[in-house]
Design goal:
The structure is a homodimer of 169-residue chains.
Chain A (H helix, E strand, L loop, with lengths): L2 H29 L18 H20 L13 H16 L13 E2 L9 E2 H26 L6 H5 L8
Antiparallel strand pairs in A: 1-2
């Protein structure tokens, strides 16, 4: 799996996340509660709420696309409060990721990735992808899923995985 | 990230999981409860318990190593009940994965991966890695983490990520 494949997988999973949120909206409507209650839900008092999990998973995809293509990520201020706003954040992220062509990742493994939180140190692109971007992306996607699931939204493993490419015979 | 890198990342994350479980044991001892209570914890009544999450994450690593190397996975019956048994399952999985040399993954992308649950259909190795093994592995690892976190075990993101390879200057 090269960097472009990874970014495509992130985009697919963000589109899946959007569907989980749509299912949550239908569930809230059916049960007669305001879906945005779930935006502040969390699994532990000192863990990210759903709002922050969605912002974080979007940022993992956005920054991986930018860092590994040598581009600059657009600014997406973390000001979402509602499901509608979070789903818009997912769309903005998908729109940005779609602008980065496969050819831009040709040098991904050799990119020098120096996020501010590393305080001057840097990752080789290939290490950043394997050690940070992939595990972190799926962590926040899974936590968003878990918060919805914990609150009763009916989701199953194939909602998480999405479409698969299989062959017959 | 090729198949061998992915399997190495899975092994690293399983070793991290073992440390989360060790932290859970220390937490239980400190709080004066039996740690194996957590083995049956789950985030939703119809979602896997911690026991099954750990078995599943081990199996994702084991089967990915076997399928992508064209080898045969050892049988690990799902009979664990306790933390000690689950940690032994992790060790058995790591021991097996360590027996598969990097050279065995040379043909990983072209392997025909036909798990029984596909009912006769099959994945191309490269699709199996991207569409199933990676997202599924991190799903179950994250759910194990989330169950422990939800029950008060003090874990942070770097416990999840583990060691990283960065450079100075």
């Amino acid at each position: 799996m090269n960097a472009h494949d990874a970014i495509q997988l992130f985009a697919k999973t963000l589109a899946n996340l959007d569907k989980w949120m749509e299912k949550a909206e239908a569930y809230a409507k059916d049960r007669g509660f305001e879906v945005d209650v779930l935006a502040q839900s969390r699994l532990a008092p000192d863990q990210y709420s759903l709002v922050k999990q969605v912002q974080a998973v979007c940022d993992q995809a956005k920054f991986a696309a930018a860092y590994l293509s040598g581009g600059k990520a657009p600014s997406h201020p973390d000001n979402e409060q509602t499901f509608a706003e979070l789903r818009q954040r997912i769309r903005k992220t998908l729109d940005y990721v779609a602008t980065v062509p496969e050819s831009a990742f040709a040098n991904a493994d050799q990119q020098k990735v120096a996020p501010a939180w590393l305080g001057g140190r840097w990752f080789r692109g290939s290490d950043y992808l394997v050690e940070m971007a992939i595990p972190n992306f799926f962590f926040h996607a899974s936590m968003a899923y878990a918060i919805l699931r914990h609150n009763g939204v009916s989701l199953g493993k194939m909602d998480y995985i999405g479409g698969i490419t299989t062959h017959e015979g």
